[in-house]
């Protein structure tokens, strides 16, 4: 499985890479702009991501806008994609209800509230059918 971890906090990156690395190769993006660029590149190189863990609070372009752009790219690719990437939003926001609403409106498959733990990450991968 190919996984993109979109996280600007180094400690969170390290924890997620350590846990998710057991299940496939992990790439890191530290801004919303980089997330979109990495996603497009993965499609151009016929090596699509199966999962993106996308932080809501990212520099340059926030995670929700990055997600909208990812879904727009998928939509323009019409039927040429075998399946849409599973996007799991991550947030440190105190109000999970607001985060959940914003995520699902943007087309996320799931979300989790930080701090990130092994149990939470694996639970979300199971929820979206990747484990």
In short:
By secondary structure, the chain is α/β, with parallel strands linked by helices. It contains five helices and five strands; from the N terminus they run βαβαβαβαβα.
- Average of the residue pLDDT scores: 89
Largest sheet: 5 strands, parallel
Oligomerization? single chain
Model regions low in confidence, pLDDT < 50 over at least 5 residues: none
Question: How many domain units?
Answer: 1
What would you report as the Rg, rounded to the nearest angstrom?
A: 13 Å
User: What is the helix fraction of residues, given as a range?
Assistant: 40-55%
Q: Which CATH architecture? A: 3-Layer(aba) Sandwich
- Please give the order of strands in the largest beta sheet: 2-1-3-4-5
| Helix and strand element order | EHEHEHEHEH
Q: Which descriptor suits the 3D outline?
A: globular
Through-space gap between termini? 10 Å
Report the strand count.
Answer: 5
CATH fold-level label: Rossmann fold
Looking at CATH, the homologous superfamily is Response regulator
Strand content: 15-25%
* Total count of helical runs of at least 4 residues: 5
């Amino acid at each position: 499985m190919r996984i993109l971890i979109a996280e600007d906090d180094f400690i969170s990156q390290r924890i997620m890479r350590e846990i998710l690395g057991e299940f496939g190769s992990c790439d890191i993006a530290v801004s919303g702009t980089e997330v979109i660029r990495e996603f497009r590149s993965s499609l151009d190189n016929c090596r699509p991501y199966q999962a993106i863990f996308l932080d809501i609070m990212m520099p340059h372009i926030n995670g929700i806008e990055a997600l909208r752009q990812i879904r727009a790219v998928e939509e323009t690719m019409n039927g040429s994609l075998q399946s849409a990437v599973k996007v799991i939003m991550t947030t440190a926001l105190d109000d999970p209800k607001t985060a959940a609403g914003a995520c699902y409106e943007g087309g996320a498959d799931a979300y989790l509230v930080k701090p990130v733990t092994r149990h939470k990450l694996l639970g979300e991968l199971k929820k979206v059918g990747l484990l």
